[in-house]
Amino acid sequence: MNVEKTKNKGGRPSKFNSIDIKQVEALAARGWTDADMASFFKVDESTWTRWKQKNPQFCTALKDWKIEADNRVERSLYERACGYSHPEDKIFKPAGEDPTIIATTKHYAPDSTACIFWLKNRKKNEWRDKPDDVEPSEYDWQAIAKVGAYLAEEVDSLKAPRRATPPNSRKKKV
């Protein structure tokens, strides 16, 4: 990225021209947030935001670099949702013998939580907990009315005064 050097108009010189753009690229590609990078370069987060506003090339490049990290995470989530395998070396060391290394393949089963997360974000209309496309006319109004009537009866029974029994009128068991 070719960043233009800005002429100082007075006041404290900006640290923007002294940051290493290659280092910013590497940090963004590894998933660092703006707050993390601002802290790393010892500037306030508002300064970092101002640099992005004043330097559109810098802002665009930063977004592009962050996409790399997002893509890696997306791929990892996909693999976790579908299950995956990878090569792995197992080391065995019987007593008194040299270690033996055996190449194996480790398998991971699909993860239902990752599947749900993926589908709720990628196919929102089909997998959302509360669909938007249900019309009020599709509700079961008769069932709703029955539940309402039942609840009203329960509330009324709780409000009804209870008949108090005088303490002396109870029959005593002998």
Structure description:
The chain is mainly α and 174 residues long. Among the domains are: 13-82; 83-131, no CATH class. It has seven helices and two strands, in the order ααααββααα. A two-stranded antiparallel ribbon has the order 1-2. A hairpin with a 7-residue loop joins strand 1 (84-92) and strand 2 (100-108). Helix 4 (56-82) crosses helix 5 (112-122).
What's the helix and strand layout?
Elements: H1 21-29, H2 34-40, H3 45-54, H4 56-82, E1 84-92, E2 100-108, H5 112-122, H6 124-127, H7 141-159
Antiparallel strand pairs: 1-2
Helix pairs in contact: 1-4, 2-3, 3-4, 4-5
Summarize it.
The protein is mostly helical.
- The count of strands amounts to 2
Per DSSP, what share of the residues sits in E-state strands of 2 or more residues?
5-15%
Indicate the overall shape: flat
Note the run of SSEs as H and E.
HHHHEEHHH
Largest sheet: 2 strands, antiparallel
Distance between the termini: 100 Å
Q: What's the arrangement of strands in the largest beta sheet?
A: 1-2
Low-confidence stretches: none
Fraction of helical residues: 40-55%
Query: Count of DSSP helices?
Result: 7
